[in-house]
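Subgroup meeting minutes
Present: P.N., E.W., G.H.
Scribe: E.W.

1. P.N. recapped why we're keeping a running log of single-chain structure predictions: easier to compare across weeks, and new members can see raw inputs and outputs side by side.
2. G.H. added today's entry (75 aa).
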Amino acid sequence: MKELVEVIAKALVENPDEVVVIETKEGRDTILELHVAPSDMGKVIGKQGRIAKAIRSVVKAVSTKENTRVDVKIS
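Output recorded in log:
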């Protein structure tokens, strides 16, 4: 799951070297924290949060298939 978010984010930003995904597990739940360069924040969030919502939708679809719960936080 971490790799999926990392690949998507690196494809969107101008500074792919600064993309960092931190995975934290809490029981069955997993939290993925996506960190990007401040200049790339708008590209990852998108207009009215559409890209961020799309990333979360893809991750939710994959996590549902694996019977887990994943939350993506962007910072």
